[in-house]
Specification:
This protein is an all-alpha fold. It has 4 helices and no strands. The chain is rod-shaped, with a radius of gyration of 31 Å.
């Protein structure tokens, strides 16, 4: 009887002190859904500015170059969410 009580107490103490029963995984931080959209929008703006500058250097008017660059971006990268915003 004493051995059972001692063994039971030892098992209980082992379980309680090991932390196995009470340890919980911390929740993974959720990614902010606006981050990918902001990155895509930044890519879109920089790409259009660069392409418009190239077209202006080739002799096109600034507003025509920007319109053409925007159309080229939509054609080339139409699968991104940023391409659909404007």
């Amino acid at each position: 009887m004493t051995q059972r009580l001692l063994l039971s107490s030892l098992c209980l103490a082992t379980l309680l002190t090991s932390g196995c029963l009470f340890s919980k995984k911390t929740a993974e931080p959720k990614e902010n859904p606006s981050i990918p959209g902001a990155v895509e929008e930044s890519l879109r703006q920089r790409w259009i500015e660069k392409r418009a500058a190239e077209l202006v250097a080739q002799g096109k008017a600034a507003d025509v170059a920007r319109t053409q660059a925007d159309a080229e971006f939509r054609e080339r990268y139409g699968f991104t969410g940023a391409a659909q915003k404007k």
